[in-house]
Amino acid sequence: MDSEVAAAVGARLRATRxxxxxxxxxxxxxxxxxxxxxxxxxxxxxxxTLGTLYALAGALGVPLATLLADRPGVEVASEGIGxxxxxxxxxxxxxxxxxxxxxxxxxxxxxxxxxxxGVIEHLLVTHGHALAGLPGQESAVGPGETAVxxxxxxxxxxxxGDAAVEAVLTIRSPARDA
Length: 178
Hints:
The chain is of the alpha+beta class. It has helices spanning 3-19, 24-31, 35-42, 50-60, 64-67, and strands at residues 75-78, 81-90, 96-104, 109-112, 120-127, 129-133, 139-141, 146-150, 155-160, 165-173.
């Protein structure tokens, strides 16, 4: 993430936190993130990982794209996984639809925190093979196949085989009270 994007993400994070009347310490505690790390992210001097941004978005009750400042092309990563925001649409009824291009390295196993009740994920694999979904309910998916689940609990993606996985991930979030 370049410095301009990091600054925009930090500003959006701070504005969202303040709109919910949360202190840095309160949000850090809710998200399980260090207070100093959160402050550095808000000030644009630290690049947040995908996992950290998901934890913060979950604690704030907003879609990840909100913290990415709805900037298509923004990429975030954690070990073994990268996500590029392709589109984020907020509909008149309050629902949000986010579309990401995912890349999972060979051998990657990524766990994502719960995104809230009613949040539905659709994963379309375009290359490679993965196991995706809620623990104990994962689906094995290969090129041209999809997995769908409600991400109201921890869920994840595991690469099967020796090839990287490329996929399109769509996340539909229901309207939320601010």
